[in-house]
Amino acid sequence: MHAVSPKLVPWLADLNQRNAALIANGYLPTAISAREGLAGMTFLQVQPGPPLAWVNDELIPGPGYTVPVRIYHPTPTEERAVIVFLHGGGHMAGGVSVYDPVCRRLAAATGQVVVSAEYRLAPENPYPAGLNDGHTVARGVWAALERRQLPYRHELTLIGDSGGGALCASISTLAQFDPALRISNQVLIYPSLDYTLSLPSIQENAEGYLLHSSRVSWYFDNYFQHSENRRDVSPLHAPFIERLPRTLIVSAGFDPLRDEAIAYQARLQQAGIVCERLHFDDMVHAFLNLENLVADECAAVYRRIAGFLQGD
């Protein structure tokens, strides 16, 4: 039987009740509430990450904007491959501090250098600001590591959850035509890949499972402010995908974005790209940010990412 995990049922029931009361009292979403909501949920449900040997902040300059980043190096005397991490939050919320526990876990699990980007957010900075910032970090990460005199191996993986997964997939699409940007792997955690919101799970999981489809539409309306063709900028509908990197997708059964992950995997596999998918049939969107409730599932994600990057 397809049912949400019993570990999440009481928490979801309480969340839905509180949200209904807010709406009844005239609540309307804002960028402030979105940012506070994601930060507060993560702070309450995710324990601080493990200590690492070297963690410091840096700046990566780009065209028109210098992107703040945080670098996590688990073994700063050894050359390690590099992960650029782009956080989730619907292009409107999240940040380096919010995702610090996640990045620490990624660095500890994989043994790789993690570089987390503080990319610009909508609505103050609409499309393509955040995408441009992610691209800046992917291209400039090597120079940043050189400035800090940190050893690294010239092998790059992009990892992102939700809206960050959208940015990763978009950057990988662009990198097919950029000889200066070689991406070895991408890991997309319950990614947003179809800005047209046209697949069945958008309606099937429209409400009641943390991320509501109406909220996704609101995110995108704040992100796209200049009449962009949303199909044209959707990674799922990219016309050319034959040179995309090895891909691991994490998907959740009760996620409005579930079918985008399934469709993207099918497209990549049809094009001959190595693409694996780790599916949790009873999970909801953003379950990595609910680790206290679903610790085993979160641990499985970090283990699989580590194995995938090792070639398993």
Automatic annotation (TrEMBL):
The keyword GTP-binding does not apply. It comes from Microvirgula aerodenitrificans. This is Alpha/beta hydrolase. Residues 83-288 form the Alpha/beta hydrolase fold-3 domain. Transmembrane segments: none annotated. GO terms for molecular function: hydrolase activity. InterPro entries: AB_hydrolase_3, AB_hydrolase_fold, GDXG_lipolytic_enzyme. The keyword Glycosyltransferase does not apply. Keywords: Hydrolase.
